Amino acid sequence: MPENNEEALKSGNNIISKKKATYPINKALRHYLKTFDRETQVPCNYKSLLRYSFSMPLIDQQGKDTLWETVFYDEHERTELYGALTRIYAIIKNAGDVSVMEHLQVDRVDYCTFGNSNPFRVKIINTFNDNYDYFYVKLADASRIYGLELEHILSPNRINYIVDHSTLIEEHIAGIPGDQFIQKYLDTADVNETRIAKEFVKFNERCFIKLLGDMRAYNFVVDITPDFDDTQYRIRAIDFDQQCYEGRKTIYLPQFFKENNAYVQLCIKRLNAETVRQYQSEEQSLIAGRIRTSHYRIKELLDVMEQDTLSDTPKIHQLRQELADHYQNNDFLGCQTMGEIVKNSLRIVLRKH
């Protein structure tokens, strides 16, 4: 986080101009996924969902276009696909046991035409009480999988996903989208500005250490938990496409996106430089503890990651130079892959704590 008003007010100029390349899952990553029960056969794949006959724009309750489209299938396709999607929900929620899923059915399938992953969002509804949940079907991308794994291991959040060849199934991450939180909650009387500012500092630090990029407000959610004397907030990433891909250091710092300026201004208003450093150090210490606790798993992941191709050479050279300057550590200059850069970033946290 910036430690003075002048630096903070310079934020908001991060631009990602081109769509990120998609990287395949190699044999070593596939072996890692099987070892840790992330590879599971599912009854339908991403390409199956592309066989819809027509679509309609999905409009929200305020009458605005959500940029999602609700897709519709011919009757013979719909019966087969909806049954398969219900079984997938049973796999990610109940280890595949469909005996307790008799009241569940697919209510709607939406398709997103923008972004990197072009996901399908499946709405599952309980016909007994109208309760509902979502999950996502996407094309598997190695960058995203590394991002999901690093989030699962190094953050306070658990991530539930499975992979079947080129199909990625992700559990829905509940929360208020960061941009909607700014519009609807940030200026209300009962919001605890100091706690939100603290969480944004810690979220900013987590993203930078893991090198998770593009955390603009619509790529994270705010999870609100009432406590016995107040309210707790946690910011959770929901988009992992930009895991260690870009070359600019600022891409991995949420503070430098204009979409997050409201959170940055809150930090300036409620926190001083010493408090910011305290929260940064706390988050670093927690990440170091998680690395130690999951030592073997994180080692296996990083061993695979440092041998993988996750970006192009100019971006790797730019990022290693910028991080070498940032940390005053020339170890980064010897890194040849993005995985090596991530490993070096985590090593610095371990040494410090």
Q: How would you describe this protein?
A:
- 42% of the residues lie in helices and 18% in strands.
- By secondary structure, it is of the alpha+beta class.
- The chain has 2 domains: 5-21 and 174-352; 40-139, no CATH class.
- A hairpin with a 7-residue loop joins strand 3 and strand 4 (120-126).
- The longest helix has 21 residues, at 273-293.
- Mean pLDDT is 92; it is low at 2-11.
- Estimate the strand proportion: 15-25%
| Separation, N- and C-terminal Cα atoms | 19 Å
Give the domain tally: 2
Measured as a percent range, the helix fraction is 40-55%
Q: Give the count of helical stretches.
A: 12
Please give the radius of gyration in angstroms. Answer: 21 Å
Query: What is the typical, i.e. mean, pLDDT?
Result: 92
Residue stretches low in confidence (pLDDT < 50, at least 5 long) are: 2-11
Shape: globular
Main pleated sheet: 7 strands, antiparallel
Helix-strand category: alpha+beta
The secondary-structure element order is: HHHEEHEEEHEEEHHEEHHHHH
Number of strands: 10
The largest beta-sheet arranges its strands as 1-2-3-4-5-7-6
Chart the SSEs and their pairings.
Elements: H1 5-8, H2 27-35, H3 46-49, E1 54-59, E2 65-72, H4 75-94, E3 104-112, E4 120-126, E5 132-139, H5 142-154, E6 161-164, E7 167-171, E8 176-177, H6 178-184, H7 193-210, E9 220-226, E10 231-237, H8 261-270, H9 273-293, H10 295-305, H11 313-327, H12 338-352
Antiparallel strand pairs: 1-2, 2-3, 3-4, 4-5, 5-7, 6-7, 8-9, 9-10
Helix pairs in contact: 5-10, 7-8, 7-9, 9-12, 10-12
List keywords for this structure.
353 residues, alpha+beta, 2 domains, seven-stranded antiparallel beta sheet, three-stranded antiparallel beta sheet, 12 helices, 42% helix, 18% strand, disordered N terminus
